């Protein structure tokens, strides 16, 4: 039989796995939205968003997961009497428990502690006023109790966890404690004043654009269905050649983060340079994809090192491109060096500034 500690560790492990998946899904959109709206990434705000995502997913795992199978549901009771925990703690003490060993007191402190990080994050990383933090905690805790008390809104015949109004009170108290402690948590970065960058695009912006491009390519390849390598090649040429040539020197991902391929002097890149650059990028990834499919179809016949070689090649391409951009002072990648181009940031207000100049 599982102990309480085993169950807690299982829920925590599940929460960690789900948090990693959530971060994988949200990492690129969070960066892209900031590049699009602010022109740069606020590191404090970004760290706060990622930490809040991890925290929220872990709280869901601890309070609602794992979901039981319908046949294993044991109906739980409910407590709608505020401050009932006072009587429960007194009963534990009367039964011979010490203050440190009281299950009711442990449960109370656990519910308080669970919402302390949320109060810290909302107050420090998002600069929410105290009343807003408390309202968010109240709404979140009430939603959790509603899900528990209704058996996931009728998914189960009865509640599989106890609906307890004291949980809402202690959760909000935890958020209050966190909000009051927030100024002292100096290790947690705070959002700052973002200054829009201009000039050459850095490694993070380029990596964000590349991730968006390859996600789009994967989505389009999936929509093409059983088109095989031909479909993959067409998609890569569309994303990395056709779109930049037809839309002013930027792939879909580069449009998203406000960047574009230009000549060294800042003038628009020549069409021939854009085509060559796109062919170099799509060709490298097409070769890696073809190699991966070839080894995958013959995995049982080939040595293990050959089977994993496409993964090594993929990692090598990423490290080479992003590493070169990070190391070089001009932030140019191999495809830039071979085509005499570079990637520069597009100012958000360039068109407005030009209109203002023309009107003077």
From TrEMBL:
Keywords: Membrane, Transmembrane, Transmembrane helix. InterPro entries: RDD, Teicoplanin_resist-assoc, VanZ-like. It is a multi-pass membrane protein. Signal peptide: none annotated. Residues 53-183 form the VanZ-like domain. It is found in: Membrane. It holds the Pfam family VanZ. It comes from the Bacteria. Residues 227-339 form the RDD domain. The chain crosses the membrane at residues 12-35, 47-67, 104-122, 134-156, 168-187, 207-224, 230-253, 274-292, 304-327. PANTHER family: INTEGRAL MEMBRANE PROTEIN, MEMBRANE PROTEIN-RELATED. This is Glycopeptide antibiotics resistance protein. It comes from Blastococcus xanthinilyticus.
